[in-house]
């Protein structure tokens, strides 16, 4: 029985800041961001969006009534949680109108958590092939204004419907995992922005990729050339390119050229959004499938998931005959229609997020076009609005 990703959909803000403009404002050469980091635009998340609304906006458009009836497991992977106790998945389940019998949990391990959720979901569906699971990686990457990590911010959510006989990608049953206590990136409970040792984290990322990639090949007996393309977690797109280059010596010149060409498609949409934390790998997968016309049914893709702290996993999936039918085909057009904001507007929005305090707060949602929005806080409870309810 095949189990894997049946549908794949994405949501982010309707706003972005141009990276060349941001570089100039920070007295940096634009190519440092455009080439050195590999980013062209960065999603700007307004106060009216958070982990919950991004997740719901990602999932709702792809779900049919039959899907909603069949879903009995909802997992939200995030490191942008809104509560130290209550799972964001509980809120998302209500907004989506899921069955009350659904199991709802939130998972955390930096950028890796959505992959943990995907592995749990496929095991669940293998045991219950008449059911479906919904896995969402939803995050807002915040390092602070005028910080070294600022150009690697962003935000959004990727929703994946997991089922038997999937339309998009049949997942393999084997993977290779590595987990160690590493202080390359963390966010203590008293911080609203992340702490990171940037160069160290980049080195750990590549070390982990090399370890789990080679471990997977040894474990399964698969050859590198059996993989049509490699898809990476992309906190910024240059990071994935560095990791890919470390694997090129394993294959011949023709395969190297093919992998590099596929990678350019896999990072195309990430260049326009920025860092998604838990969703970054899966936006790259979506970018690959939407923009790469050299892929075909039966191709096997290798996927590398990484979460600082640190945990990494390498696994594979096989493209299915009708994989385009399960994709968010309107995404490139939606990204092109976003509104550009100035650096000063971006800074105002960054500082206007719902404050971590007990007071009642109200957020102006008039300019937010999305179905699900955060309207504020009342009696220490976040207030969400479904405009279609």
TrEMBL record:
Entry keywords, A to Z: Acyltransferase, Transferase
One Pfam assignment: HMG_CoA_synt_N
Domain Hydroxymethylglutaryl-coenzyme A synthase C-terminal: 259-349
GO function terms (MF aspect): hydroxymethylglutaryl-CoA synthase activity
Residues reported to bind (3S)-3-hydroxy-3-methylglutaryl-CoA: 143, 242, 275
CDD domains: init_cond_enzymes (cd00827)
SUPFAM superfamilies linked: Thiolase-like
Active site: 79 (proton donor/acceptor), 111 (acyl-thioester intermediate), 233 (proton donor/acceptor)
InterPro entries registered for this protein in UniProt: HMG_CoA_synt_C_dom, HMG_CoA_synth_N, HMG_CoA_synthase_prok, Thiolase-like
Catalytic activity, EC: 2.3.3.10
Stretches of the chain forming a coiled coil according to its record: none
Domain (Hydroxymethylglutaryl-coenzyme A synthase N-terminal): residue spans on this chain: 2-165
Family as reported in the entry's similarity comment: Belongs to the thiolase-like superfamily. HMG-CoA synthase family.
Official protein name in the record: Hydroxymethylglutaryl-CoA synthase
Classification lineage: Bacteria, Bacillati, Bacillota, Bacilli, Lactobacillales
